[in-house]
Amino acid sequence: MSADKIGFALLILAVLLFAGKWVRMHWRPAQKLFLPASILAGVIGLLLGPGVLGLLAQTVAGPETALADGIIPESMLNIWSELPGLLINVVFATLLLGVPLPNFKRVWNLAGPQLAFGLTLGAGQYVVGILIAALVLAPVFGLPLMAGALIEIGFEGGHGTAAGLQDVFADLGFPEGADMAVGMATVGVISGIVGGIILINWGVRNGKSEVLDKDVGEIPQNQQRGLIPKDNRPVPTGGMTVRSESIEPLTLHFAFVAMAILVGLGILESLTWIEKQTWGSGEDGMELLGAVPLFPLAMIGGLIVQQVLTRIDKNDLLDRETMLRIQGIALDILIAAAIASLSLAVIAANLAPFLLLGIAGIAWNVCLFLFLAPRVIPKYWFERGIGDLGQSMGVTATGLILMKIADPDNKTPAYEAFGYKQMAFEPLFGGGLITGISLPVIYNFGPWPLFGVMLALVVLGMGSGLFYFGKLKEQ
User: N or C: which end of the chain has fewer CB within 10 A?
Assistant: First the structure.
C-alpha cells in the first residue's frame, strides 16, 4: 500500500469527521441522542461503502454499475480497518499520563462504593456472556465460546477496544468476532445514551435525583449541538509548558505518549519471551501472553512514565489537558474508522446471537443500576451511579455525558469519585488486562476458569457493596 493511498484515505476520513459534526449540529435526533460526531462519521462512511451503497447500486443497476463498490472503495476501507489497532495504543497510553496519584484514604472513601458497583457491572458482563455462549450460542449457532466475552469487550471496552482486538480475534480463529464486537460497541453507546436519558427523566419524576427537580428546563441548545458559545470559548486547548521556539508543546507531549507505548511494548516483549522459555516452549507449548494486545500494557507504560516524570521533572513539563486532546483525536479517528470498515454481512449472518448478547448486556446493566446502586453508593447514588451505567454500556465518554446531564453544575462528588474509581478499574476492565487476556484464556482453557473468577468478583463487588458500604450508609 503506497503512502499516497494511505494519506488520501486519512484525508477522506477527516472529511467524514467534519460531516459527522455537521450532522450533529443540524439534525435533531443526533442532538437528542448526544451522538458523537465520530460515530456519525463512521455511519456515513459505512453507508457510502460497498456494503450499503454498493450493494444497493448492484441490486438496482446490476454488478457493472459505476457505484458497484460504493463511493468509498474496499481498498480505502482496508486502510481504515488497520487504524484502530494502532490508535488504541495512543488512547490507552494517555489514560494515566498527567494523572497524579491521590491520597489513598480519600480515594477509598469516594471511589470504594463505585468500584464495588463498577466491578459488579464489568465482571457480571462476562458471567452473563459466558453463560449465554455455553448454553445457547455454541450449541445452537455454532459460535466459539469466545463469544461470551463480546458483551464486556463491546460495552465496557467500546469501539477502541473492540477494534484493537481485531488481530487477536483473527489469530484465535474467530475473525468475525471483531465485527460483532464493534457492532456491540455501537449498540452499547446508543443504548447507553438513550437509556441513560430515559433513566434520568425517570429519576427526576420520582425524586431519585438530589440535584434536578421536576421543573428542570431543557438541555441548552448549544450543548445538544455540541458547541461552546462564542463568548465562553477557552483559548488554549491545553497548557503550554515549553516555549514553541525550543519545541512545539504538542510535539513534546507526543514524545511522552511514544515513550509510554514503547515501555508497554518492552513489557509485552519481556512477557512473551518468558512465556516462550517456559510453558510456551515446544510443540505442545501454550500461547497465552503472546496473544495479549499491546494497548493495556501501553496504559501501564503511561503509569510508569508518569511516575518517572513525577520524580525527575521539576518543571512540570507534562500537561494533562494537552494529553486529553491527543487522546481525543486518536479516539475520534479510531471510532470513525472502525465503524466505517465494519462488515454488516458478518452481523447479519450472526444477527440472533448478536441481539441476544446485546439485550442481555443491557438488561444486566439497567437492573444493577436500579437495584444495586442505591444500596451500595452512600450518597448521591443516582448522580454517581448513572456515570457507571453509562460507562458500562458505552465507555467512559458516555458516563461523563450522563453525569453532565444529571449534575450540570457539578454539585455532587460524582466526577471526582468516578475519576478515582477509574484509576483502579481501567487497568482491569474496559480494555485493561482482564479484557486483553479474556480471549486467549477462553481459547486455551475453556470458558469456565474465567467464568469462575468473574463470578467471584461479582460476589466480591456485590458483597462488599451491600454489607460494607451499605452499612456505612445506614450509619
Answer: C
Q: For 4-52, how does the pLDDT look when each residue is reduced to its tens digit (9 = 90+)?
A: 889 999 999 999 999 999 999 999 888 877 777 888 898 899 889 888 8
Same domain, 9 and 50: yes
- 8 A C-beta contact, residue 343 and residue 438: no
Instruction: Determine, yes or no, domain membership for 460.
Output: yes
Domain that holds residue 374: 84-213+248-331+346-475
Write phi, then psi, for 466 (nearest 5 degrees). Answer: -75, -40
Which has the closest alpha carbon to 161: 143, 185, 177, 144? 185
pLDDT tens per residue across span 45-68 = 988 988 888 888 888 877 778 787
Nearest to 151 by CA among 429, 425, 469, 441: 429
Q: Are 300 and 264 in contact (CB under 8 A)?
A: yes
Angle, CA of 324, 41 and 431, to the nearest 5°: 45
The pTM (predicted TM-score) of the whole model is 0.72
130 and 67 together in one domain:
no
Residue 164 lies in a domain: yes
CA 26 to chain centre: 26
- The count of domains in the chain is 2
